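Deliverable D4.2, example record:
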Amino acid sequence: MPKVQIYTPVDETGESYERMTTLGITVKDGLIAGRDTAPDPKSEVAIDADTDAMAGYVRPITAEGMARAPDLRIIANYTVGFDNVDLTAASAQGVLVTHSPTENNWAGVAEGSMAMMLTVLKKQRERDTHVKAGGWRRRELEGTYIGARDIDGYPGLTIGLIGFGRIAKRFAELLAPWRVTIIAHTLETDDPDFQRLNVRPVPLEELLRLSDVVSIHCNLTQETANLISGPELALMKESAILMNTARGGIVDLDALATAIGQGRIAGAALDVFPQEPPDFSHPIFGLGDKVLLAPHMVANNVGSGLPLAIPLVTDNILKALSGELPRHIVNPEAIPLWQRRFGGRSLL
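Output generated by the structure prediction step:
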């Protein structure tokens, strides 16, 4: 009997487990008793030696852990993120890693990014605090005009997107009526959506120099860890803001706090941190309204959440156990080895 190990449970109904067990699959849900608490992102997953497939999120899966399960075929994440898995080790072992880009998740991030940008640029927090304290109009409460104007030739802001996947493209769609200039940095410079969305691809250094708002929408990988640090922040305009709704490890938080504190950039909006929950004694928390901070909830909206990814994860597991390639593979370099080891070999 094939074995599926649920390393971070999401399905409180158990319906997906029943779907698998009726096909002769053994399902191990190792955290049933801990469902009411958030998973510990530092709690490494102990993988059973006879595991064929895994499902979960957040908790780290290491090379050593995967090596203990020689027949492991797939690690299916319930989230759009997958930086908890050692992709290099997974690919070397021929293990496929999939994620779950459900629209409620990735589109929610785009909407949240729009809300954060408007909150900062229009100084909504400052105005609210001022009026509730009995104040009224003051020049320092003036917001930033975002779009181009015909009356005086004001060109509007330049919005720079780091990454050009689903989230960045939806953000660009939301920005379209605002008459802004949109540029993006990505390795896929021949994407036809550049033309459709009126977005110009540029090198990272050019994006940082030109942008009034830099918004991060790439995955956290070995290549993007600390992608934005001291030298990159030094390229930005003093009036610019940095937004990160992707992964905290992409930005050097120490360098960011220093740059804002010294006035080298105007501020930041962060939904994610390198360590979560963060160290609340960090200097970033002492910068007042220069920073807008949120508890990694940009995609959390009514009607959203991880349960919507359950059917996708279950389908991917069943595909892999049937010897077929699943959807939304994030390490395609593993496919040739996977095909040699498991292709066409069904365990069901």
